[in-house]
Amino acid sequence: MANDPVLDPQALDNLRAISPDDGGEFLRELVAIFLSDTPERIAELETAIKAGDQQTGGRAAHSIKGSASNFGAGALAAVAKRIEQLCKEGQLAAVGPLLRSLHDEYARVDQELRAVAGVSGP
């Protein structure tokens, strides 16, 4: 995954096309929301897994998957999708090893989105 593009340029172009005359403000707002919300969803997911709450874990993973997909963050979306599937199947013990990958992929997306949208660090 580390050699694959972090973000799909076409997905970013599609987001820019929604408001093409705003100098990138719409994209910056979306990125800021994603960068604020996703760590909260990851924390929610981890808490749910520790508590054995497959429904909440699945919802958090689903949310991460959808948000990542909007930006073309395929590797992050793929990890979240796998976690979502495991939660639905009640295989919470199998989620643990994937959490490191989720954090790693999110860190890559965070860095790339900040660079693309010109959003400063936390």
Written overview of the protein:
The chain is built from five helices and no strands. It is mainly alpha-helical and 122 residues long. The protein has one domain (9-117): HPT domain (Four Helix Bundle (Hemerythrin (Met), subunit A), Up-down Bundle). Helix 2 (25-51) packs antiparallel against helix 3, helix 3 (54-70) packs antiparallel against helix 4 (74-88) and helix 4 packs antiparallel against helix 5 (96-117). It starts with 8 loop residues before the first helix and ends in a 5-residue tail after the last helix.
Order of helices and strands: HHHHH
Give the CATH topology. Four Helix Bundle (Hemerythrin (Met), subunit A)
Using only C-alpha atoms, the radius of gyration works out to 15 Å
Measured distance between first and last alpha carbons: 25 Å
